[in-house]
Amino acid sequence: MYDLASKCSVLLAKDFAHSAFTIILNEETRNSRSLYVEMNQTVITIYPRLKIAKMYNFSSTEENCQVLDQSPENSTMNSRQGINKIEVSDQKGVSVSCDFQYDLCTVTLAGWHHGVSAGLFGTNDNEAGNEWMVPNGSFTDNLKEFTQSWQVSKCSLVQKKEKPCPITAKQNICKTFFEEPHSLLR
């Protein structure tokens, strides 16, 4: 367990072998945080303090930047939402659950994700010696270096390539993805 003093968004976990999932803790305005979860060509952003979730589909078989809903219904992901809790999962064994009452989110990975992910949550291979791996594959025992290495926002040392969204009838969704100050794709 460690305290994140950073005001930057950080990569918590990503499947680097099959790109089955990506989970990012976003820093929002006014000391608020959101959880960005990408699975099955669908993105869900969970705002625990606001007790809401927004979902988008970016499947190549459908019109790009299609908004699905304000809630995680009608999705390729399994989802359940109660008054104080939301759970999303996929058929490949990735599950994210947030309890709004306690401001607590958990990520559960099935066995076939063993050793294929990395991020602030570690390598998921039951080896204590490599939990503090940084993106370039080396290791550190310095908490500041470790957390900074997994930053994905504007304070990141690694520039991310943006995929332009084609001009369609869904221009407002594209604006949300690429122009909003809190967007990871900006």
What can you see in these coordinates?
InterPro entries: VWF_type-D. The structure is a single chain. The protein is globular and about 40 Å long. It has one domain (10-150). It is mainly beta and 186 residues long. It starts with 9 loop residues before the first strand and ends in an 8-residue tail after the last helix. It is built from two helices and eleven strands; from the N terminus they run E-E-E-E-E-E-E-E-E-E-E-H-H. Mean pLDDT is 75; it is low at 60-75 and 156-162. 26% of the residues are buried.
Task: Provide tags for this entry.
11 strands; 186 residues; four-stranded antiparallel sheet
Layout: helices, strands, pairs:
Blueprint: E1 10-15, E2 21-27, E3 33-39, E4 42-47, E5 52-57, E6 66-69, E7 78-81, E8 85-89, E9 94-99, E10 104-109, E11 117-118, H1 143-149, H2 171-178
Antiparallel strand pairs: 1-2, 1-11, 2-3, 3-4, 4-5, 5-6, 7-8, 8-9, 9-10
